[in-house]
Amino acid sequence: xxxxxxxxxxxxxxxxxxxxxxxxxxxxxxxxxxxxxxxxxxxxxxxxxxxxxxxxxxxxxxxxxxxxxxxxxxxxxxxxxxxxxxxxxxxxxxxxxxxxxxxxxxxxxxxxxxxxxxxxxxxxxxxxxxxxxxxxxxxxxxxxxxxxxxxxxxxxxxxxxxxxxxxxxxxxxxxxxxxxxxxxxxxxxxxxxxxxxxxxxxxxxxxxxxxxxxxxxxxxxxxxxxxxxxxxxxxxxxxxxxxxxxxxxxxxxxxxxxxxxxxxxxxxxxxxxxxxxxxxxxxxxxxxxxxxxxxxxxxxxxxxxxxxxxxxxxxxxxxxxxxxxxxxxxxxxxxxxxxxxxxxxxxxxxxxxxxxxxxxxxxxxxxxxxxxxxxxx
Length: 377
Fold this sequence. Notes:
The chain has 14 helices and 13 strands. It has helices at 2-16, 50-58, 120-123, 151-165, 178-183, 188-198, 216-224, 240-245, 251-254, 257-263, 274-277, 292-298, 323-331, 343-353; strands at 34-38, 63-65, 67-70, 76-78, 101-105, 108-112, 170-171, 174-175, 209-212, 228-233, 269-273, 302-308, 337-340. The strands form three sheets. An eight-stranded parallel sheet has the order 7-2-1-13-12-11-10-9. A three-stranded mixed sheet has the order 4-3-8. A hairpin with a 5-residue loop joins strand 3 (67-70) and strand 4. Helix 2 runs parallel beside helix 4 and helix 13 (323-331) crosses helix 14 (343-353). It is globular and about 55 Å long. Mean pLDDT is 91; it is low at 1-23 and 358-374.
């Protein structure tokens, strides 16, 4: 039955795009790959701000991605890390000088100011700053202007823009350092699911993907919610919960057919480091694609690649000044989506390969087909 429904879906996708020949085949569902605004349009605004998310949506992003950390009073806010001296002006605030601390986060000694030592009201007095000013000096013009948003504010923005634009804007939250937050009594999974439920995000038809670099918390989330789950895979190292539990497997072990089969028991997809899909040689040039996309699709898993950035410092050596070609090569592998700091570039290149929403059934319906590939509980 599943194979029949999958064939039906692919047939419907083909019918829907018949007026154009700009069709990109090979995704799991037959739908065009989604564009995920990585921390918003973080190539143009300080990351994880409502303004960065708004700009990402305006540039064509289908999903916006908030990394989530917890406050002292149990709210989830959007920050790349729980240590916030690199993304806020906290270090210049004398009233918070006594909050400076050194902690062990995922086995590393980290010094600075941490969200779990602030209430939401206190965090709201801080203002965002550009995280990588040497690479993105233009973004520093926005330093000190934007607040740290809550998960609820990100959801409100997505719903507001969906209504205004007539297309569904999804959210793609990542739980950061779940083992650490569990250890200090601020488990994020229950808070996250409570917020999602309150907003009507309860099953795989919801425009939501929850992602994490750890495994145990995703398995917990699989038992708590039916929204789509994505296992993040890095190019090296291991999930930190594996390190703590003594599991010797690495991310590369999880990227094997056997590892992918296990992931499919609790997740709907993988979020893979680009180098696992198209590796680079010792000089930084792109090589030929691996079998990861095909292997993941064979296991019934979506593949979302991370992270795409336009600056030369991030581009392959043989594609300097040509980020568009990097997108083209990755889209050609059949990935189901990608995370981009520059969603306008991702959208523009996709537009040359596939018809945009309106010519097809619409990318907003992609989550509706999640039940065809439902993970096993």
